[in-house]
Amino acid sequence: MNIAVRLKSVTKSFNGVKVLDNIDLEVCRNDYLLLLGPNGAGKTTLLKIIMNVLKPDKGTVEVYCKRISCVFQEPRLLPWKTALDNVALPLIARGMSKGKARKIAGEWLHKVGLQGYENYYPRQLSSGQQQRVAIARAFAIEPDLLLLDEPTSNLDPENKRYVMKLIKKLLNEFKTTVIHVTHDPLEALNLATRIAYISYDHKLQVYDRSEAGKVLRSCGLTGVSYMKAIDQLEAHRFITASESPPLIIKNIHEGKS
Ligand SMILES: Nc1ncnc2c1ncn2[C@@H]1O[C@H](COP(=O)(O)OP(=O)(O)OP(=O)(O)O)[C@@H](O)[C@H]1O
Ligand SMILES: [Mg+2]
């Protein structure tokens, strides 16, 4: 099995309050893991541990990826840089020349439909456009792990659909491993290869696609939305694991045990 992320017995508390309780998780290359759960369950904390921004109190974290991108709820663009320079920044930070980075950034802005907006500053862009810049920035480094933390939750319904369609289109062209946190399982159910659910008691359960009905019921999806979800599951447009690149052991960090 070609593992991208492996967590074993990960536990995390803040000020003595447990927010992740003995989490075991394996994410394979090219998996699309949909991560669900109520507010405060620990989803963002889990992503931060995978990004090595936070250390677990106990357990081990193995991340076999060297280019990790994240798209958050809010775009998090640098206000003093143009759209083009915001996208170019992570490329330059990785050692690419400014000229080449700006060229690639321009291509990605084009792919997210923002050609002509290269020299706009974030304050001159709508929230939806800013989020598209953030998506271009995330894809520009060609991530081998893409973390999506509610990337559409601040957008109106039309932009929500547009941004999810865009992410799906880009993932069709550029397959990668994805962990996607959302409160709306319907928005990406057709991509999900597996579904994880963190419950109020901060424990994680991972379900196979075939068990999606169970997890949708735990999210309180019933009636029409439930039927819509099941329809989507049947629509079967999801990423299949393709030939994976060799493992790159780059970023193994261990919590105190
Ligand atoms: N740096 C921190 N210091 C103290 N407590 C924190 C910190 N970060 C998170 N928490 C707490 O950990 C719990 C889980 O937070 P987290 O942001 O992971 O939840 P979440 O599942 O992402 O919720 P949401 O769906 O609302 O985004 C919350 O109770 C939060 O207050
Ligand atoms: Mg969160």
What are the SSEs and their pairings?
Layout: E1 3-14, E2 17-28, E3 32-36, H1 43-50, E4 58-63, E5 68-71, H2 83-93, H3 98-111, H4 127-140, E6 145-149, H5 157-173, E7 177-181, E8 194-198, E9 204-208, H6 212-218, H7 223-235, E10 251-254
Parallel strand pairs: 3-7, 3-8, 5-6, 6-7
Antiparallel strand pairs: 1-2, 1-4, 4-10, 8-9
Helix pairs in contact: 2-3, 2-4, 3-4, 4-5, 6-7
The chain binds adenosine-5'-triphosphate (ATP) and magnesium ion.
Question: What features would you describe in this structure?
Answer:
- By secondary structure, the protein is α/β, with parallel strands linked by helices.
- It folds into two domains: 3-67 and 143-254, P-loop containing nucleotide triphosphate hydrolases (Rossmann fold), CATH 3.40.50.300; 80-141, no CATH class.
- 33% of the residues lie in helices and 25% in strands.
- The protein is built from seven helices and ten strands.
- It has helices spanning 43-50, 83-93, 98-111, 127-140, 157-173, 212-218, 223-235; strands at residues 3-14, 17-28, 32-36, 58-63, 68-71, 145-149, 177-181, 194-198, 204-208, 251-254.
- The strands form two sheets. The protein has a six-stranded mixed sheet with strand order 5-6-7-3-8-9, sandwiched between helices.
- Residues 236-257 have low confidence and may be disordered.
- Adenosine-5'-triphosphate (ATP) is lined by residues 14, 19, 37, 39-45.
Features of the shown structure:
33% helix; alpha/beta; 257 residues; single chain; Rossmann fold; 25% strand; binds adenosine-5'-triphosphate; binds magnesium ion
